[in-house]
Fold:
Amino acid sequence: MHVDTSPDPMRIYRAKRDASHVYVKSKYNILGFISSGTYGRVYKAEDASGNLHAIKKFKPDKEGDVVTYTGISQSAIREIALNREISHENIVSLKEVILEDKSIYMVFEYAEHDFLQLIHHHSQTLRCPISIPVLKSLIYQLLNGLVYLHSAHILHRDLKPANILITSKGQVKIGDLGLARLSAQPLQPLFAGDKVVVTIWYRAPELLLGAKHYNNSIDCWAVACVLAELASRRPIFKGEEAKLDSKKNLPFQRDQLLKIFEVLGSPNEKDWPSITHLPEYTSLKRLDPYPNRLFDWCQSCLRSQAGYDLLRQLFMYDPDQRLSAREALGHAWFKEDPLPTTNAFASVNSNQIPPHRRITQDDAPSMSMTIPFQPGQSGNAANAPGPPFTQVLSGSSQQAQVQAKSGHSHHTGTSGSLGDVGHGTTKIRKKPRLG
Structure:
């Protein structure tokens, strides 16, 4: 009887695939745990050349205590695809994506600081305002990155201090595109995929009033909230979020709206004609009227007429009247002394720069350090005996929390990078086509 001894094509394919596969532990030494968020956990890591990275591991789906593998989530696909298609000096850079043991790892450049750290450092440690040169440089770079995203028809939809990173060289990096979406010809309506976007304190009034159609202006409102928070070292609109009911219906965000009205005054049909078409307009009419006190607020925080005017125009209730990121970038505030710089820390002493980001070890025994390799060795040195990387990253943990007495909650970002600011160096490899 003839026995077929020819090689099995599938076995050959699998052998070649496994031989060429990139394993996380063969390339990166885990230095510690940074933070956890809705979709995953973030770790600080070092490659064989000594370069630092932030590695985000996506969480698998869970039903009770049982982990189920149902494929890659829509959110993960969207975040990976958008990050791979964009490149700008003020947006965090994705280096690579690794699929290992049914887990997805996104490897980013690393940044030592974020806006939330800077706010806490000045409010809790230094107990003094962030200087105007630093403030202006941070917001200018933030707007520069946002102009790029909006020119690529991308809405960030979750701008807040913890998601805006700063390198040790004072360069701003917009991070965490987990909620980002294409605004031009999306595959499904923006409201359909994510009914709740933007952390409540930074959420634009049209979203709070139930708008199902929105545009870039929601990001510009968030920028104004971030600017105000940097200037005052506390959230300007710190409301309590009403949670979804058992049927996942969106509640009326009464408290958050009142916090906005207490500073900006109550909106009216004259200044915002389309407000009457919003789902929560009837509920809005039942609230007491408030006068506009933004000028008084700015007198104690920004002390600049041009700074007040920038905030006023970014805080316009009508999204069609609100400044775009590009218009804000050309505002007079950035043209008066002190001028913004590409290094936000250039004008300050080292004590005004926050300490390096804290890293911890997971509280599970498996989160002990991997056997360290010396920077400059070949990546194979990371294969020395030690706990597998996939095991190292899977331990449960208690996230290192920063609880500010000023009332900030600890929001977490994902990663960071290095570079320079400039309008002329933006680059889009190709226009993404994602929903």
